[in-house]
Amino acid sequence: MTYDERETLTSGRNCAECKKKPPQVQCLHCSQFVCLECAQKHVNLVALESEDAMHFLNEKLDILDQIAAIARQKIVQERDMIVRYADEERDRSFMQLARMIDVEKQKVRYKSQELNGLPLNAIPAYIRELKAELQYLTIENNDLINVSSTAPRILLQQRGSQRKSIYDDDDNMFN
User: Fold this and answer.
1) I need a surface site. Which of 17, 126, 129, 159 has the fewest CB within 10 A?
2) Is residue 144 included in any domain, yes or no?
């Protein structure tokens, strides 16, 4: 805006704020024409509002740090629970394995008892049948017992119905 355009807009008018002095500048904060004294008051007001907003934002940053610390504690608790569960699962699996192996050993022992009770002429055929039946029991081709697991995972979900997390997956940090 040129000096003449401003003079046309402000001639015969008073400051939009104090209504006493003639306006000299257009306030950047509210676009009103004000005197220099009121313009300084506007600058001070905006500075105070900005300072309050910065204080508010810093408080929110501190709260986010506190939330992160609490969440970390909960993650450690979840991990400890997973470890306890994994130890219990290991012990349960060892007991199950012992039972499974005992059943297989009983089958082999029974075959041994059967062999001892056979007449001599039936032993060669029984041994061929026994070898075919028990050929699955080898170290190289161990299909008898399959061991597998599903790894536990700690899930984090952000509360709030409309909020979407910017961390939707492990590989891609931002949507």
Assistant:
1) 159
2) no
Q: In this predicted structure, what is the pLDDT of residue 161? A: 46
Q: Residue 123: what pLDDT?
A: 95
Classify each residue of 79-91 as buried b or exposed e, where b means 16 or more C-beta atoms within 10 Å of its C-beta: eeeeeeeeeeeee
How many whole angstroms from its chain centre is CA 92? 30
Q: What is the DSSP string of 77-139?
A: HHHHHHHHHHHHHHHHHHHHHHHHHHHHHHHHHHHHHHHHHS-GGGHHHHHHHHHHHTTT--S
| Other C-beta atoms lying within 10 Å of the C-beta of residue 34 | 24
Taking the C-alpha atoms of residue 62 and residue 70, their distance in angstroms, rounded to an integer, is 13
Residue 124: inside a domain = no
Tokens for 14, please give them.
């008073």
| Residue 153 forms part of a structural domain | no
Q: pTM of the predicted model, to two decimals?
A: 0.56
Spell out, as residue ranges, where the chain has pLDDT lower than 70.
1-12, 141, 161-175
Q: Which domain holds residue 14?
A: 3-102
